[in-house]
Amino acid sequence: MPTVIFQLPDGTERKVTAASGTALMQAAVSNGVPGIVAECGGNASCATCHVYVDAAQSGLAGPPNDVEDEMLDFTAAERRPTSRLSCQIHLSDALDGLVVHVPEEQV
Amino acid sequence: MTSMAGVVVVGGGQAAFSVVSTLRASGYAAPVTVFAAEPHLPYQRPPLSKKAHTEPEGLRVELVPESFYRERNIDLRLGDDVVALDTAAATVVTRTGARVPYAHLVLATGARNRPLPVPGAELDGVHALRSLDDALTIGRALTTARDVVVVGGGFIGLELARVALARGARVTVVELADRLLSRAVSRELELPLRERHEHAGVRVLTGTGVRALEGPGRVDRVVTDREVLAADLVVYGIGAIPRDDLAREAGLAVDDGVVVDEQLRSVTDPRISAVGDCARHPHPHAEGLVRLESVQNAIDQGTLVGRRIAGSPASYESLPWFWSDQGDLRLQIAGLRSPADEVRLVPGDSPERLAGYAFRDGLLVAVETLNWPAEHLAARRLLERRTPVLAGDLAGTTLGALARARRAAEVRA
Ligand SMILES: Cc1cc2nc3c(=O)[nH]c(=O)nc-3n(C[C@H](O)[C@H](O)[C@H](O)COP(=O)(O)OP(=O)(O)OC[C@H]3O[C@@H](n4cnc5c(N)ncnc54)[C@H](O)[C@@H]3O)c2cc1C
Ligand code: FES
User: How far apart are CA B168 and CA B253, in angstroms?
Assistant: First the structure.
């Protein structure tokens, strides 16, 4: 089971382990990681599950899909080159050790 | 004594979860108890009408696992409903006879379906959808159903119609009003939406009342004002009624929902709050009081009340937003439209995309989109900040383009 690390805006981090296939958003919500609101429950409708993939690992998670890419222009916190919607990232062994940063605001 | 009593939440849905998770995240340390009538962990309802029937086995709808509550010392009492409030003694009474005191009480009881007021509504094969158990029952019925009649052309009805169609049934939607989604969506957007449903294969009968459901124990036909429809499954969704009876019986102000102030406190008793589908509240985007039935409203109201109890009071002013997935149609609404608003339809950059901009006195107040989440988000960003968008600002352009241009200007300034 892959382990991922959420870096929170207050400087603390949360390590979360979840089964392959789980959406990164779901892994965060199930473990009570603050700052991932996920209003739409993972439907690519709300953009309140925005994260920044760690710059050193941007290749690991791959690029956003088309709809996600457009939506990322309107996240509450600024878009960066490493921005993703965490409900669109699905965990796999290849993502073991992924580090993502949770933005200051989601809504 | 009262500080020991802590917070009691009645209801185990989206809003209740939002209250208790916020309380703990905000450092609230006193006891937190949730009484939830259903036997299930608090779960999300939107997938019930969109996915439950296509993936009945794999359906995972709970918001968080049981460990979440345990780790945060949240006392979650599933399957035990509150049957009375004793506001003088600041105590709730549960079905099992327990009397539990509260320092603060939060009502998050949600809504129930409006019953179908026609003969035959109690026949086998007739269902309404509100709970996980309902969804599983309908999902099973859809494995064999050939002729499905959906009574009510609202969100849940249309979502179910497309699910049933995808499961291979013949589907007819019967709606009493002269159009679909009459309360929620503008007439302008309803037309293309209806066309798309009909094109996909849903038969839509508007301006048609249901007189009776008939069959030998099990429904086999629906008698309408116009014709008799064959049916082996009838699903109805004709609106919801807030569950405000506890509040009414306890003498709190109730008017189609528990009446609360801008901080979501009962106007009768400030030790009681109401959140989510059961609350009627003031809102800066509305004239008079409103009651909203949406995930956004349940989450944001729960967050506001959780923070207030933990020591950070605020007024409720979140921008209302809503989504509904009806087959391949993703409908999203940002803001509150009223029937008198003027709506301008704007085509998107691909044929399946469409937006409706609603203007009041020349100012943008709400945006409806079809299959265009980015435009919906742009609308939310602009409406949330309450920077005026004039009808003229949108001549020949989209909100997305406008939002990008405004952001670029801000960066330059
Ligand atoms: C099928 C369906 C699809 C939906 N789809 C969407 C959508 O796509 N987008 C959207 O924004 N919204 C959608 N909604 C609306 C959204 O789910 C609700 O607005 C939201 O769940 C409201 O949250 P709530 O906590 O107020 O009420 P609920 O989630 O309904 O929870 C209330 C809970 O309180 C319990 N309860 C009631 N009385 C008592 C008592 N006396 N004691 C103990 N427990 C009690 C009930 O059993 C219930 O579980 C949908 C709703 C349904 C039914
Ligand atoms: S959870 Fe809504 S877009 Fe990801």
Answer: 47
Q: From A26, A37, A40, A67, give the residue whose CB has the most ligand 2 atoms within 8 Å, as the site to mutate.
A: A40
Query: By three-state DSSP, how is residue B153 classified?
Result: coil
Among candidates B187, B206, B154, which has minimal Cα distance to B338? B187
Establish whether residue A43 lines the binding site of ligand 2, counting it when its CB lies within 6 angstroms of any ligand atom: yes
What does DSSP assign to residue A33?
-
Judge whether B274 and B260 are in contact, CB under 8 Å: yes
Q: From the CA of B342, how far away is ligand 1's center (Å)?
A: 31
∠ CA B137-B142-B145, rounded to 5°: 125
Task: With beta carbons less than 8 A apart as the criterion, state whether B367 and B379 touch.
Answer: yes
Q: Could you say which ligand is closest to the alpha carbon of residue B79?
A: 1
Distance between CA atoms of B2 and B23, rounded to whole angstroms? 17
Q: Please state, in angstroms and as integers, the Cα–Cα distance from residue B135 to each residue in B16, B109, B378, following that order.
A: 21, 19, 33
Question: What's the full length of chain A, in residues?
Answer: 107
Q: Are the Cβ atoms of B71 and A67 closer than 8 angstroms? A: no
Q: What's the pTM value of the predicted model, to 2 decimals? A: 0.96
pLDDT digits (tens, 9 = 90+) for B345-357: 999 989 999 999 9
- B240-242 and B111-113 beta bridge pairing: antiparallel
CA distance B321 to B337: 11
Express each pLDDT in B374-395 by its tens digit: 999 999 999 998 889 999 999 8
Length of chain B: 413
In Å, what is the CA distance from B98 to each residue of B54, B83, B119, B183? 40, 10, 39, 41
Q: Do residues B127 and B138 lie in contact, with contact meaning Cβ atoms separated by under 8 Å?
A: yes
Q: Provide the ipTM.
A: 0.93
Burial of B259 (0-12, 13-18, 19+ CB in 10 A): buried
| B216 Cβ neighbours under 8 A, 6+ residues apart | none
Sequence-distant (≥ 6) Cβ neighbours of residue A12 within 8 angstroms: none
Q: List, for residues B40-63, the tens digit of each pLDDT value.
A: 999 999 999 998 666 655 567 899
